[in-house]
Inverse folding.
């Protein structure tokens, strides 16, 4: 079986799929298919961003590390977007680490090349990336609400649903350590919550692997924040 070309693969990324063939064409020669390996660091804090990544499947987390070493997740990015958004906004660094949380694949483009290809003014790609910026901002704002007001079990269900959407399969790797980092809670709390979701028949979780068994049940267990975030991405970027 022939290996799919970048042009054939790019429809797996929501941003690239939203562009017309003519609008994608300038990007194609510079897109490189790469593996997203577990824990791989794609962006270092306050260091010039070397590449822009369009994930095809998998999940990348943006992590803030405090002076005492405490780490908190500030955002997750999957096949709905890109890693390297500051370059769209005429900045070349961020104060966060971007690392691969769930392995997968991405189409990668050199940051300097990407900057040259960004259309001036009102180009279709430029407009799409601005809408994505708003969608990501809305996601971050909703996460603040969720983390402040909703129970850990609801937040865990919301996070699992967003991850399930992004990886394109029912089973994916996830350690207690990662999930505790994502939810901003203790590993013991994660163990308890995962156990409850498993007992309810919504997921199977063992040896660092999660399998979604009951998608509808997981949606019912989540808070409203999952639906709000999904609706905003659909509104701004078109249906998934």
């Amino acid at each position: 079986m022939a290996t799919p070309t970048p042009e054939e693969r790019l429809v797996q990324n929501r941003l690239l799929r939203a562009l017309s063939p003519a609008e994608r064409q300038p990007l194609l020669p510079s897109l490189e298919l790469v593996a997203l390996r577990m824990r791989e660091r794609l962006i270092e804090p306050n260091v010039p961003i070397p590449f822009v990544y369009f994930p095809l499947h998998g999940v990348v987390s943006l992590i803030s590390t405090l002076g005492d070493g405490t780490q908190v997740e500030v955002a997750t990015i999957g096949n709905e977007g890109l890693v390297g958004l500051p370059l769209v906004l005429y900045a070349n660094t961020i104060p966060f680490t971007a690392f691969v949380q769930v392995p997968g694949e991405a189409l990668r483009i050199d940051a300097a090349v990407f900057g040259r290809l960004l259309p001036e003014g009102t180009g279709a790609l430029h407009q799409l990336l601005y809408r994505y910026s708003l969608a990501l901002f809305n996601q971050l704002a909703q996460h603040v609400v969720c983390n402040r007001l909703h129970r850990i079990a609801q937040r865990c269900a919301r996070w699992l649903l967003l991850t399930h959407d992004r990886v394109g399969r029912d089973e994916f790797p996830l350690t207690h350590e990662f999930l505790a980092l994502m939810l901003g809670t203790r590993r013991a709390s994660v163990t308890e919550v995962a156990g409850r979701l498993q007992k309810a028949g919504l997921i199977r979780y063992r040896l660092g692997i999660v399998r979604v068994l009951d998608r509808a049940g997981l949606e019912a267990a989540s808070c409203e924040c999952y639906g709000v975030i999904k609706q905003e991405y659909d509104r701004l970027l078109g249906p998934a």
